[in-house]
Amino acid sequence: MSAISDPIGDFLTRLRNGSRANKDIVEVPHSKLKLEMAKILKKEGFIRDFDQAGEGVKKVIRVHTKFVDKTPAITGLKRVSRPGLRRYVGSQEIPRVLGGMGITILSTSRGIITGREARRQNLGGELLAFVW
Fold first, then answer.
1. pLDDT by residue (tens digit) across 82-126?
2. Is 77-131 in CATH node 3.30.1490.10?
3. In the chain, domain spans
4. H/E element holding 17?
5. Segment 17-33, tens digit of pLDDT
6. In the chain, N or C terminus with fewer CB closer than 10 Å?
């Protein structure tokens, strides 16, 4: 098995595929970055919950997907900054997703936060993903 070149892209793809397939639980390999992104998705109401399972190398994050009237809460995900083309934005350049209905996820000097929080703290950073 080969190594994953874009772990964030893999995380988002697994979430997208799992929600479209109406899966209750989606398992992704564990990392601190993915755990922080799962915390943001839970806080913003895109997933029901998440937990960690396993030990050492076999550690995974179980994401419990959320459905509203049998429709996935996550209707779309887009990876913006990728390994081949990084995208950095200043605090005034952070885009709004669907006029504020979606969220942007950024990696800043203060950790992984939403675009709304980054604007409030006057922070820029790497634009990781759009979620709506």
1. 999 999 999 999 999 999 899 999 999 999 999 999 999 999 999
2. yes
3. 7-72, 77-131
4. helix 7-20
5. 999 999 999 999 999 99
6. N
Beta bridge mates, 36 = none
- Residue 112: both structure tokens together: 């992984």
- Dihedral, CA atoms, 60, 61, 66, 72, nearest 10 degrees? -60
Q: Which fold has domain 7-72?
A: Ribosomal Protein S8; Chain: A, domain 1 (3.30.1370)
